[in-house]
Amino acid sequence: MSASHSSTPRFKDYLELHFIILLWGFTAILGKLISIPAVELVLYRTILAAIALAVVIRFKGGSFKIGRQNIVKIVGVGFMIAAHWILFFASARVSSVSICLAGMSTASLWTSLLEPMFTKKKIKPHEVGLAILIIIGLYIIFRFEFDHVVGISMALGSAFLAACFTIINSNLTKTHAPATITCFEMAGAFLATALFLPFYRTWMTETGTLQLAVNLWDVLWIGILALVCTVYAYTGAVRLMQKFSAYTMNLTVNMEPVYGIILAWFIFKEGEQMSAGFYYGASIILFSVFLHPILEGIRNRRIRRLQDSLPN
């Protein structure tokens, strides 16, 4: 464990970390439980999360002053997040939670392939190999679950966007407080969704009207989604990053699709049953995702040993 962490993680820290990952895996299920469409859902989620984060920042004595240019940039990232969430929830709605999470599990490797384009880092051979393995897994799923092509395509698009804004955020957090960044991003995501509504209402709804009316169950699920799965889970993860190594965090986050698929099966049962081909393909993808941080750890240890062996 790196000495830079504030303290050694305790058992309850491990429990909280897995609980947060469980919540992230639960978001696709909430998207299917909530009766309103994906666009209206993202509208409510983003405004509630933005307000709640603003209250948290103000309560903790944080600052919103980061400069007009930075605000414009961060709000722009929020536009990307809005598209990511709309595709994510729409994927779960038109196909299944399992299909959605199988596609979303490619986000970490999309990140590893895209990062060299944004930074000066070199492409790593093992990451190319894992990407090929993921393509094989996706091919198997497409072959056996052809009826869900639209759903998994949406999930892949959502994962691609997640990789893009994760790379951008990794640079933003070097100079600004993560909670402040997220607050402006949620505001940007709300703005993007609101601006999208006229086009969406005219061209993408059957009745030409928005479904903004919610029932009592929707109020509960949207509240959990915005406040528990977004605000609490995010701030909790940032706090735990001070105790866990990046390797441990990345390895644990890979459990998100596993938890989500298991929860979906228990909640929706027959509605989440897939062909054997789906589970073969999903297993290959998840194996690749789990293997990535392990290979990365081996590579980093080799580099450190090589550096230690060089004369000073």
TrEMBL record:
Name by which UniProt lists this protein: Membrane protein
Signal peptide range: none
SUPFAM superfamilies: Multidrug resistance efflux transporter EmrE
Keyword check for Methyltransferase: no
Location of the EamA domain: 22-142, 151-291
Origin organism lineage: Bacteria, Pseudomonadati, Bacteroidota, Cytophagia, Cytophagales
Keywords carried by this UniProt record: Membrane, Transmembrane, Transmembrane helix
Regions that span the bilayer: 14-36, 42-59, 71-90, 126-142, 148-168, 180-200, 212-235, 247-268, 274-295
GO cellular component: membrane
InterPro entries for this protein: EamA_dom, EmrE-like
